[in-house]
Specification:
Order of helices and strands: HEEEEEEEEEHEEEHEH
Helix content: under 10%
Shape: globular
Number of helices: 4
Distance between the termini: 18 Å
Length: 254
């Protein structure tokens, strides 16, 4: 796939919520981002979608970064509104265990994986963590570290919950994980959904519990494309919401 690396950031634009005036909407601004992964599903119940990587050109316009879009798998039960960087319209909200992918506008966080470094050709400045046997990402809403990446120090004792909450080393689907920052800021809401990533899809082709999954080669292309100074974000929407929000969210045309 052909990748381009010219980035420029535009001024933020307002988000207009249903029933809100333009004046009120001006208090809410879009993130300043030079890279955008745009995911589109057919409907709220879709477990499949299409991912379109874009970047800003020197004039500030969105430009397709790859020559082809990427097929992806989503939540087994479709989509529900997630908790990202923008307020979202009224509707079903993402909850722990609902097997739905969060829809909305999300910051992309760090990359985690089994290798000592990111794939050749990746931005060496992009935050990366090699997962060890002591890494955990609790999905239990009762855990004080819910939806947070933590590293246990065994010298200080291993908590009783660790075995059920540790990151699953040895699972090929988690060879690479790109963090989708759902339900993180200012802090996680217990039960609001946890551990949402881009990762390798299962060989069975089955949908996920809420992550966005794709072929390993496609995921590694995305890893090489990401740039730390471009402040990359991810937007996932069903088609009807994309058509409704693309102008006020300043989204590329697809």
């Amino acid at each position: 796939m052909k990748r381009r690396h010219a980035f420029s950031l535009l001024a933020a634009a307002p988000f207009l919520r249903p029933g809100e005036t333009v004046e009120a909407a001006e208090r809410v601004a879009l993130p300043r981002t030079g890279q955008l992964l745009l995911g589109i599903a057919d409907t709220w119940s879709s477990s499949r979608g299409t991912l379109y990587p874009f970047h800003r050109d020197r004039s500030g316009n969105w430009v397709a970064s790859f020559s082809e879009s990427l097929p992806v798998m989503l939540g087994r039960n479709g989509l529900a509104w997630g908790r990202g960087v923008l307020p979202t319209p009224e509707g079903t909200k993402k909850r722990e265990g609902d097997r739905k992918a969060p829809a909305g506008y999300f910051e992309i966080g760090k990359v985690l994986g089994y290798e000592t470094a990111l794939p050749d050709g990746s931005d060496p400045r992009f935050p990366y963590r090699q997962v060890t046997r002591w890494d955990a990402w609790p999905d239990d809403p009762k855990n004080p570290h819910y939806n947070q990446h933590i590293v246990i120090d065994p010298a200080k004792g291993v908590p009783s919950w660790f075995e059920s909450q540790k990151m699953r080393l040895g699972d090929y689907a988690y060879h690479w994980l790109i963090e989708i920052k759902h339900n993180t800021d200012p802090k996680p809401v217990p039960g609001g959904g946890s551990a949402i990533f881009f990762h390798i899809k299962r060989r069975s082709g089955s949908a996920s519990f809420g992550c966005t999954t794709m072929a390993q080669s496609d995921l590694e292309d995305v890893l090489r494309w990401l740039r730390a100074d471009a402040n990359p974000h991810y937007v996932l929407l069903p088609r009807e919401e994309y058509e409704r929000l693309k102008d006020v969210w300043d989204l590329p045309g697809v």
